[in-house]
């Protein structure tokens, strides 16, 4: 099984609703998302997937949804109301959950699987240089990813 990884950095704010610690306060991180693909075969050029195309897809989704946005639990009405009162604020709502690195990894993975295919099997979200959370699917993809070249 071949594997490849790209990473994309971005900045976002969040807070953890109901948390008993410092992360109950709104704050931000310079995140890094590691996105992993795997597949059983290479194409005629010897590639599983074009790095540039993959990185472009990941960057595009993150730029449209998370970069320089505030990530919020959709039950955090106080925070959402405050953010909506700020002109030009960007908010991404997590449904029924906090925007933890674990939940971010799952949301990004699920969205990239729609865009790229089931060969996208894992995402790690780095909150700091020392800590990350990951989510991955256990099943191997049935075939190689949809190929896209730039």
Summary keywords:
single chain; 150 residues; alpha/beta; six-stranded mixed sheet; 3 helices; 6 strands; 25% helix; elongated; disordered C terminus
Write the layout of secondary structure elements.
Layout lengths: L1 E13 L12 E13 L11 H15 L3 E5 L3 H8 L6 E4 L6 H15 L4 E9 L2 E6 L14
TL;DR?
The protein is of the alpha/beta class. It is built from three helices and six strands; from the N terminus they run ββαβαβαββ.
Detailed description of the structure:
With 150 residues, the chain is α/β, with parallel strands linked by helices. Helices cover 25% and strands 33% of the residues. It is built from 3 helices and 6 strands, in the order ββαβαβαββ. The chain has helices at residues 51-65, 77-84, 101-115, and strands spanning 2-14, 27-39, 69-73, 91-94, 120-128, 131-136. It has a 6-stranded mixed sheet, with helices on both faces. Helix 1 packs across helix 3. The chain is elongated and about 55 Å long. The protein starts with a strand and ends in a 14-residue tail after the last strand.
Total DSSP E strands: 6
Give the percentage of residues in beta strands. Answer: 25-35%
Cα separation of the termini: 24 Å
Mean of the pLDDT scores?
92
Main sheet characteristics = 6 strands, mixed
Order of helices and strands: EEHEHEHEE
Radius of gyration, CA atoms, in whole angstroms: 17 Å
What is the helix content? 25-40%
Strand order of the largest sheet: 4-3-1-2-5-6
Determine the structural class based on helices, strands and strand pairing.
Answer: alpha/beta
Shape: elongated
Counting H and I runs of at least 4 residues, what is the number of helices?
Answer: 3
């Amino acid at each position: 099984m071949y594997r490849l990884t790209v990473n994309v950095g971005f900045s976002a704010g969040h807070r953890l609703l109901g948390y008993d610690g410092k992360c109950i306060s709104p704050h931000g991180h310079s995140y890094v998302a590691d996105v992993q693909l795997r597949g059983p075969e290479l194409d005629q050029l010897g590639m599983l997937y074009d790095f540039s195309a993959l990185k472009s897809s990941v960057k595009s989704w993150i730029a449209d949804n998370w970069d320089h946005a505030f990530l919020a639990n959709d039950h955090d009405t106080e925070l959402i109301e405050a953010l909506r009162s700020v002109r030009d604020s960007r908010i991404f709502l997590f449904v029924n959950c906090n925007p933890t690195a674990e939940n971010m990894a799952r949301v990004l993975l699920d969205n990239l699987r729609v865009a790229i295919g089931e060969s996208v099997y894992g995402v790690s979200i780095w909150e700091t240089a020392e800590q990350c959370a990951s989510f991955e699917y256990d099943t191997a993809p049935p075939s190689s990813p949809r190929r896209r070249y730039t």
